[in-house]
Amino acid sequence: MKKSLLILFSLILTASVTFAQSTITGVIKGANGVPVPNATVLIRGTKITTSANDKGEFSISTKQEPPFYLQISSVGYKAQDFQILKFQDTPLELTLVENAQLDEIVVTSRRRSEVLQDVPIAITVIGGQAAENAGAFNVNRLKELVPSVQLYASNARNTTLNIRGLGSTFGLTNDGIDPGVGFYVDGVYQARPAATSTDFLDIEQIEILRGPQGTLFGKNTTAGAFNITTTKPTLVPTAKVELNVGNYNFIQAKTSVSGAVAKNLAAKLAISGTQRDGTIFNTSEERRYSGQNNLGFKGQLYYTPSDKLQILLSSDVSIQHPAGYPLVIAGVTATERSAYRQYAKIVSDLGYEQPKIDPFSRKINTNTPWKQDQSIGGISLNVDYKIGNGTLTSTTAWRFWNWDPTNDRDFSELSALTKSQGNSRHDQYSQEVRYAGNITEKVSGVIGVFALAQNLKGLSQTEEVGKDQWRFVQTSATGAQAGYTTPGLLDGFGIKTNSTIKSLSAAIFAQADWEFVEHLHVLPGLRFTYDKKDVDYDRTTYGGLQTTDPALLALKAAVYANQKFNINTDNNNLSGNITLSYRPTTKLNVYGTYSTAYKPVGVNVGGLPTTSTGEADLSLAVVKPEYVQHYEFGLKTKPLKGAIVNVTAFNTDIKDYQTNVQSPQLGVNRGYLANAEKVNVKGLEVDGSYQLERFLSINAAVAYLDGKYKKFTNAPLPLEETGHTELVNGTATQVAFKDASGGRLPGISKWNASGGAEFSAPGKVGTRDGRFFIAGDLSYRSEYSSNPTPSKVLNVDGYTLVNGRLGFKSDKISIFGWVRNIGNTNYFEQLQAAAGNSGLYAGVLGDPRTYGATVRYAF
């Protein structure tokens, strides 16, 4: 009996001791040792939670045995997990790290982690959370936050992403040219500009590098690069959900979940869906266009078997089926053609009413449905292995892009250019291997190799005209031209194009950072690149009146004709840079850079202009590479705690600038590529930010850009000069080109500015501690040209956009309302001449005022 009681007493005592030890006590402090009041303490994997008191002290009980995790979170600090390996009698001391101050942001633009202000490159950094709060869920929204970034898109394919006005050709996209702005997500280069239209998925940080960066990144980046990183999977279970609702039936839902699936193996799944009604109404179809219908998925596996090895396997796909992105009729101008060939006369002769010029009524009257369906995605494997004082990285990736559009390219109710379908299929394979790290105490750097293979196919790309097209191509009502009135001659007449571009780009690059004198660094870099492109182009006509009459066949051939050609071209280039950087203190970084860069040879796959004999002008099939010389001077400062002020001045000269021009010939509706002999862009950028504790943050940036054709002797005529004649050997002769030397480059505003501010104060919603905030941002662009050759009519007026948001945020939950384009500003993003240059031009409208609310919850 005594023995039994002794055993029972021992069990009770053990249980009592275990229960007593299951209560964990501690104190939470910041990095400065000051207690963090009212922080939230959660036992991971349970609903057991508590809050620290005003002194940062907490006590929490658990019945589970170690090991487990405590998650500590507080507004203004990074949420952190602390592993509890065993119970202890003494209170824990847990330290939280504050969210990065603006002057302590870490970037990986030089392929290693560095404080932003120490990097001698002009960089803008936007955190993923900041982008989400500003409603910038894709690059198109992001451009309002960075003055030196320009993005123009009439749809996902026809996207121009530029930095400082340089990068890609302005206007309709021609697949035969490479972008000059590198676009990287988790180290993977994404070749198609359509990638910028997809919704961000669980973004951690966006770094925007300005100026050539070819010695750091895999692909040529003659104008700059976007370096986007997403959050990695975590072994500790985490999840977040977000719901946005707004006018135009806008609804956007996002979620991500992460956690361990095996020892040292974490997984994450992120999903995003966006739906919004269109902002443009088609009166003939009684249907809204220019809406959003996006769905995105991203899955990742992250294996970390040791401190030296990290393996990340990622896969993503985005699917978009929006109700088209039509252009609206923006105006009609007189050309220098005869009165018979003016747009108003043509419309009148066809029996239609003149178009109503009221673009901001947001109404169209087209008779072909608009569709821009796309899917884009891929898979990548990233391996990081620490060797010595550096890291060896291998990034292997495959990506695809499928594009299936339908457009009404006469922009009206007429049956003229009724159909334009540039169906495309794209595959890319890329491999990058690089080593980055410290070579000696005074020398660090990166060396790497990169290869990119692409296969871009145009599949039965279709352009088709209707019953009204005859009047647009007829030059007079007499003689042979009278044959265009033949019934059905051009009805359903069109072309189908099958083309293939197979390209290979391979490079080796290296850059070093040598502190050869205390505080004075020299940074040399070199890059050797080889590019090869093989083109197979085959365009055949179909439809229209079936006839053997030579006169009628000649009239049809003047509208569309068969074209077939093959091109094989390659080139190589050695380029580089040299930078001097002086960093006497942590508050000052002065640097100067000279660099050369190049953009590969281009090829035309949008149809070529024809010679006087009606044959394709093969002299225009290949476009010479761009060669860049760039000078830059930068000053990065920290004048006081929490503040930064940066100044950058630059001058960029380009030889054989690649530009996209519009031909008056219908058969090259998509335009073709050409070279301007010399181009210069120079400018000054000033940006600054200030963060006062957690109460106030302010940012502002302004950029002055001046871009001109120094020499462009063979520029296309602007719309209003179409039909221009000059005396040639005493005879009035119609010309198609002019000298545009001294004219401004398209898409560049002289003045660009952005700014924002957020003020917050502590408060509670129910029992939840957090902060109430009010925030806003503003962007301004001055007037800019919207045509390859300066035009009197194709200019976009300057505009200002103001956005705002108001709400509550805590470590777990955020609730706020938002308004974009508060003033409901009417503005164009782009203007372009209709095919055939008869005087009509259309525009891409910016979004009207939108508003809504966001709820975000993390657990």
From TrEMBL:
<dbReference type="InterPro" id="IPR008969">
    <property type="entry name" value="CarboxyPept-like_regulatory"/>
</dbReference>
<feature type="domain" description="TonB-dependent receptor-like beta-barrel">
    <location>
        <begin position="363"/>
        <end position="822"/>
    </location>
</feature>
<keyword id="KW-0472">Membrane</keyword>
<dbReference type="InterPro" id="IPR039426">
    <property type="entry name" value="TonB-dep_rcpt-like"/>
</dbReference>
<keyword id="KW-0410">Iron transport</keyword>
<dbReference type="Pfam" id="PF07715">
    <property type="entry name" value="Plug"/>
</dbReference>
<feature type="signal peptide">
    <location>
        <begin position="1"/>
        <end position="20"/>
    </location>
</feature>
<dbReference type="InterPro" id="IPR036942">
    <property type="entry name" value="Beta-barrel_TonB_sf"/>
</dbReference>
<comment type="similarity">
    <text>Belongs to the TonB-dependent receptor family.</text>
</comment>
<keyword id="KW-0998">Cell outer membrane</keyword>
<keyword id="KW-0732">Signal</keyword>
<keyword id="KW-0798">TonB box</keyword>
<keyword id="KW-1134">Transmembrane beta strand</keyword>
<keyword id="KW-0675">Receptor</keyword>
<feature type="domain" description="TonB-dependent receptor plug">
    <location>
        <begin position="116"/>
        <end position="225"/>
    </location>
</feature>
<keyword id="KW-0406">Ion transport</keyword>
<protein>
    <submittedName>
        <fullName>TonB-dependent receptor</fullName>
    </submittedName>
</protein>
<dbReference type="InterPro" id="IPR000531">
    <property type="entry name" value="Beta-barrel_TonB"/>
</dbReference>
<dbReference type="Pfam" id="PF13715">
    <property type="entry name" value="CarbopepD_reg_2"/>
</dbReference>
<keyword id="KW-0812">Transmembrane</keyword>
<dbReference type="InterPro" id="IPR010917">
    <property type="entry name" value="TonB_rcpt_CS"/>
</dbReference>
<keyword id="KW-0408">Iron</keyword>
<dbReference type="InterPro" id="IPR012910">
    <property type="entry name" value="Plug_dom"/>
</dbReference>
<dbReference type="Pfam" id="PF00593">
    <property type="entry name" value="TonB_dep_Rec_b-barrel"/>
</dbReference>
<keyword id="KW-0813">Transport</keyword>
